[in-house]
Amino acid sequence: MRSQEHTPDMSGDIVCKSHLDSLVSNTNSPIHDKKTIKLSPDGRYSPKGSQQNDDQSNSHKKNRRRKERSKQKVNRICSSVGRNFQNRKVTDYYHIRRSSRKSKTELKCEQKKLIDELITNGTEEGMKVREIEGKGRAVFATRCFQKGEYVVEYHGDLLQITDAKQREAEYAQNPATGCYMYYFQYLCKTYCVDATKETERFGRLINHSKNGNCQTKLHDINGVPHLILVASRNIDEGEELLYDYGDRSKASIAAHPWLKY
């Protein structure tokens, strides 16, 4: 009778007891004692390969656990950093840098102080007087002036309306007397700057033109109004300084026909 062949299950344990007993009896290695024996892929027993597979499997498990712990640690750090970042301000990372540029208010204050000093000291620069045939004296710029820049003060005696009218009546008795009286309103009162008296100040000599390059403006110093001239546009060197006297009355035009132009 032929002995019955036993086909082992390639996916699991060896079920042939006789073969198992022979293997156990022929080895004294403790690794075979009371252990389940695994087969190699070709169906042969390989205790060394089985041990290597177990070692590799354990190594992979350790690596996975190590990676998981590292990932958890990174997540905890990121979460902590995120909370700290939300509680911080931009200034914690960037220093505050003060701007060196001045505000409009600061620039206006500095400009006013400069004009105050020029008026108080009687400083008049950047102009000269020249004689023009058929016109008389005129003031010309010796440097450029920017639009809005202070040019000169219309300097004279500051009078209230009653005193100004009295002087004007006196000047009217002498036809040779020129027109140097400038009336204006300030704080609901009428004032007049009388520049009739001959002086070396340039403001009184600037001629009239409807299309002038200067305009009058009031400038307060300690509550006292000063009549000044500022550039109404950019003025080039060599230009005659002109402004509109603003008098359009028939009597004034009859006495001074050049006021029409």
3D structure, described in words:
The protein starts with 16 loop residues before the first helix and ends in a 6-residue tail after the last helix. It has a domain at 104-260: SET domain (Beta-clip-like), CATH 2.170.270. It is an alpha+beta fold and 261 residues long. The strands form 4 sheets. It has a 3-stranded antiparallel beta sheet with strand order 3-9-8. It has a 3-stranded antiparallel beta sheet with strand order 4-6-5, covered by helices on one side. A two-stranded antiparallel ribbon has the order 1-2. 33% of the residues lie in helices and 20% in strands. It is found in: Chromosome; Nucleus.
Which key terms come to mind for this protein?
Beta-clip-like, disordered N terminus, 3-stranded antiparallel beta sheet, alpha+beta, 20% strand, 10 strands, 261 residues
Q: Averaging pLDDT over every residue, what do you get?
A: 77
Number of strand segments: 10
What order do the SSEs take from the amino end to the carboxyl end, as H and E?
A: HHHEEEEHEEEEEEH
The CATH H-level homologous superfamily of the domain at 104-260: SET domain
- What's the Cα radius of gyration? 54 Å
Oligomeric assembly: single chain
Task: Return the CATH topology of the domain at 104-260.
Answer: Beta-clip-like
Give the strand order, joined by hyphens, for the main sheet: 3-9-8
Helix/strand-derived category reads alpha+beta
Distance between the termini: 148 Å
The number of helical segments is 5
**Sheet bearing the most strands, described?**
3 strands, antiparallel
**Low-confidence runs:** 1-20, 22-35
Q: Which bin fits the share of residues in helices?
A: 25-40%
CATH architecture of the domain at 104-260: Beta Complex
